[in-house]
Amino acid sequence: MDLKGKVAFVTGGGRGIGKETCILLAKQGAKIAVFSDNQSESKETSLYINEKLGGEAVALTGDVRSEEDVNSAVQETKECLGSIDILINNAGVMLLKPFIETTVKEWDFVQDVNIRGVYLCTRAVVPQMIEKRDGIIINLSSIWGTKGGPDRSAYITSKYACIGFSKALGEELKPYQIRVNAVCPGPVDTKMMDDIAPDVNKDNWLHPRDLANVIVDLCMPKMKAVTATVIEAFGNGRPVNL
């Protein structure tokens, strides 16, 4: 249990990659703040950790786009579990639509969730990490954050921004022993992808647990040499189109 006593704040922790990451972090001894915009999913994940694993978790509900929601959740985490050691910025949305058909409202929504949310959560947590000169931040980008592709300009833009933010902040926070990295998944079998592309062949797709393994490994003390960088995790292939 290499993370025993550590406090982890996970956005989008109610399902998919976020849920599996919460569970795996708990198995390594961490105390978990499950933050999600879906109250029932957040409670389900925290209940599993508390009752099935004998761990310690709290369920928090809010919107990563809201400064008030984020600050309130971070404060509640500190009061219930202690100062945050690990931040997993996992919450995200995808829009599959030609650029010329993408509305301003849709564009802003994708940017707000995928990069404003990362900024707000990081901004709320980093002062705690600076104070104790220790911390780990993992931001979920995408393999689409490393290249171009059709019908997803809003999504790709937000995920490129996530990588840039991770590299910049990783360098800035090195003096405080705070490690910041981005993980870029390939195709993962999640509800979000089911909603977007229900009929696509998923034979070579990863399970959310496969990504959780990568994320949690980056949180381990043995990975102290890795910061301000990008880990691509795409299994059997780099998809060009769904």
Task: List the SSEs and their pairings.
Blueprint: E1 7-11, H1 16-27, E2 31-36, H2 39-52, E3 57-61, H3 67-80, E4 86-89, H4 104-132, E5 135-140, H5 153-172, E6 178-185, H6 191-196, H7 208-219, E7 229-233
Parallel strand pairs: 1-2, 1-4, 2-3, 4-5, 5-6, 6-7
Helix pairs in contact: 1-2, 1-7, 3-4, 4-5
Write down the Rg.
Answer: 17 Å
Q: What is the beta-strand fraction? A: 15-25%
Order of helices and strands: EHEHEHEHEHEHHE
Distance between the termini: 38 Å
Describe what this molecule looks like in 3D:
The structure is a single chain. The chain has 242 residues and is of the alpha/beta class. The chain has 7 helices and 7 strands. It has helices spanning 16-27, 39-52, 67-80, 104-132, 153-172, 191-196, 208-219, and strands at 7-11, 31-36, 57-61, 86-89, 135-140, 178-185, 229-233. Strand 2 (31-36), helix 2 and strand 3 (57-61) form a beta-alpha-beta unit. Helix 4 (104-132) packs parallel to helix 5. It starts with 6 loop residues before the first strand and ends in a 9-residue tail after the last strand.
